[in-house]
Amino acid sequence: MNETATYTENGLPDRDQLISAHLPLVNFLVERMVTQVPTFVNKDEICSAAMLGLVDAANRFDPGMGVKFKTFAERRIRGAVLDEVRRMDWFSRTLREKHARLARAIERLERKLGRAPEEEEIAAEMEMSLEEYQTMLGEVSYLGCISLNESIDDEGGTRTIIENLEDEKSKSPLEELEAADLTREMAGHISKLSEKERLVVALYYHEELTQKEIAEVLCISEGRVSQIHSQALLKLKVKLTRRTAMPPFPAKKSAGE
Questions:
Q1: Which terminus of the chain, N or C, has less C-beta within 10 A?
Q2: For the whole model, what pTM was predicted?
């Protein structure tokens, strides 16, 4: 996609040209996200939300941010689609509780074992059979609550997992240092996932394969890919949530201490 843009008299990129040049990005993201939302959310509704995201990106984009418009727009588009789905209130309290139960079980086991737990261990911790556990993973994943675009802030914040996988140009040396540190830490967490979990994450987010294509590559069912994907990202979210809950620096001692 061409990143070259004409500029207006005030030195900002031409909004209409940005929108027109990146319409293929909307189509690409809609095709990918259509499988990540409930079936009652139709493609036209996803397209409308995605277009609003692109327009919002064009209105907000500032070249001084040090990031390509395509990268900036992709986040806005994905966010707009997810916001629309949430607005439609498809994400029930029951499913939120299932998601929370899964995350709590994984966190308890990680603290107990000192490593990422296997799915059999998670199922046992939740007092479920392996089949029941995998069914829950499938339900949660199918309804779209597990994604690298999911917030890592429990109180409704805006930071997402995927932002910590990217090597972004920061606005200050301190931010750049913190981002680099978090990226290294994230790479370490990913390296501790199981081989299949690492493969699914890499094929889906870096090679941009669909879950159906990943299933064909790994010779497993599409449903199994969905389960592995959910489990891997739950583990990553637990790690990142724990990290962001900690103060970045130790509190300073008072002079009398």
A1: C
A2: 0.53
Each residue's pLDDT tens digit, 155-207: 444 455 555 554 444 445 555 555 566 667 777 788 888 899 999 988 887 78
DSSP 90-113: -S-HHHHHHHHHHHHHHHHHHHHH
How many alpha carbons fall within 13 Å on the CB side of residue 62? Answer: 4
Distance CA(254)–CA(257), nearest Å, equals 6
Q: What is the domain range of residue 59?
A: 15-87
Burial (CB count <10 Å: 0-12, 13-18, 19+), residue 76: buried
- Kindly state whether residues 183 and 83 are assigned to the same domain: no
Q: What is the CATH number of the domain that holds 173?
A: 1.10.10.10
**Domain limit, last residue, from 31, 55, 87:** 87
